[in-house]
Amino acid sequence: MGADNTKEFLDDAVTFTTAAADRKVSVTVTYAQSQDNMVSKRNEQLILSGPESMVMTHRLRAMHDGILVGINTVLTDDPRLNVRLPTSTTATADTGKVQNPQPIVLDSHLQMPTTARMITTNSSSSSGGGGGGKLPWVFTDANNHPEDKRKLLESLGVQVIAVPRSQVHPQGLCLHSVVAELHARGIRRLMVEGGATVIRSFLLSRIPENLVVTTAPVVVGKEKGVSVPPVNDPSLGYSLASEKYQQLGDDVVMAAKLVYK
Q1: Could you tell me the CA-to-CA distances from 179 to 185, 188, 239, 242 in Å, in that order?
Q2: How far is the first Cα of the chain from the last one, in angstroms, to the nearest whole number?
C-alpha cells in the first residue's frame, strides 16, 4: 500500500467529531500489538510495527495536536514523539511542512530524565521533519512530586502541570483533569500511544473517540510481554463501530469508533 493510500485510509477511518464541536478534546488511542495482545516487554523495548505501518503511525501523529505516553514508555523507549517519516505523507496542505504535535507525558512522581531525547533533541519549533519537535509537557501529582525536580525540568523549558490523583485508579492521575488542562492549552486532537497501563486507563475512562490498533504477525508470550485487553473485551464498556481494516506490509491495521454502553 502506497503513502497516498495510507493517507486515504486514515482520513476516512479517523474523524474528529468531538473536536469539531470545540467542546472537548477528541482522543485517539493507538498502539501496536502482537497476535497474543502484547504491546511491550517488561523493562525492554519491543518494536512491533513494520516499515509500512510505521509510516502510517507518523501520518497519524501529524493529524493530532498532541501525543501522550506514560513515564514507563519514556524510561524504556526514550521516544521523541515527533513526525520524522516522509513529508509526502505528513505535510500539511496549507504550509507544505510537517506539523509536529505536542509531546505529553504522564509522570506522577517526576521521574522524567533530563537526558530524555524529547528534551535534548526537540526544540520549540513545530516544523521540520528531521528530528526537531516541541519540548514536552509533563503532568504530575499535584500533592506529591519533588519540587526540586520540577524546578530543574522547568529550567530546561519543560512545562510541568500538576493535576489531582485519579479517584478510580489511585496509582494514576485523573485523566479527565489531564484532558481538561490540555483543552485549556489549545489541544483539540490528542493521540494516546502507550504504554499498556495508560492505554488501559484511557479505554476505561470513556474519553476516547477513535481506536487504531496495528497487529503484527508475531507472538511474544505472556511470560515476557505486557498485554492490553482484546479490543472487543466487554469489560471495557464500549462497542466498536465503523470498523475499517487495512493490510500494511505484514501488519493489519484496524480503525474504529468507540461507542460507550
Answers
A1: 10, 9, 22, 25
A2: 35
To the nearest 10 degrees (0 to 180), the angle between helices 3-13 and 51-62 is 50
pTM of the model: 0.89
Q: How confident is the prediction along the chain (261 residues), in pLDDT tens digits per residue?
A: 555 578 889 989 999 986 666 568 999 999 999 999 898 887 777 888 888 998 899 999 999 999 999 999 999 999 999 887 764 444 444 455 677 899 999 999 999 999 999 999 875 443 444 456 799 999 999 998 999 999 999 999 999 999 999 988 767 999 999 999 999 999 999 999 988 999 999 999 999 999 999 999 999 988 888 888 888 888 888 999 999 999 999 999 999 999 998
> How many CA within 13 A on the CB side of residue 130?
1
DSSP state string for 140-202? EETTS--HHHHHHHHHTT-EEEEEPBPSSSTTSB-HHHHHHHHHHTT--EEEEEE-HHHHHHH
Residues 17, 241: Cα–Cα separation, whole Å = 14
Q: Is 249 helix (H, G, I), strand (E, B) or coil?
A: coil
